[in-house]
Amino acid sequence: MRNTNKVFHLAIPCKDLDDTVEFYEKLGCQLARRYDDRVTFNFFGDQVVCHLGPDEIDNEPKMYPRHFGITFLEKQEYNDTLEYAIRHNLPFFTEPMVRFEGRQEEHLTFFLIDPSNNLLEFKYYYDVNMVY
Q1: Domain boundary assignment for the chain
Q2: Tens digit of pLDDT for each residue in 18-43?
Q3: The domain 9-130: what is its CATH number?
Q4: N or C: which end of the chain has fewer CB within 10 A?
């Protein structure tokens, strides 16, 4: 299990810092630092750094294998985030869906897409044992 004294770090490319800041702040992420070539956010308690790299952008993103996101342990947090995304007109890559219906690993999920075509998945497993 993760201790509270650890923060996961993820670095991703972005094509425009202003658009990136607008998207992640709209998502509810706090801007921690901004430099000429990158921005750092508090992404649900972890650190996401968006490095300016317009040549690194995936012009045709696919859900698999490249995405990142949050797995909620409480269904209400998942529902609240989904409602928040809808209310704030965040761009969906896929609509909310149920994956692996009827199986032990059944879960709720939706994907957002940021201005640099990075895909963000938000999900909730009915069986907490399936989280890992």
Answers
A1: 9-130
A2: 999 999 999 999 999 999 999 999 99
A3: 3.10.180.10
A4: N
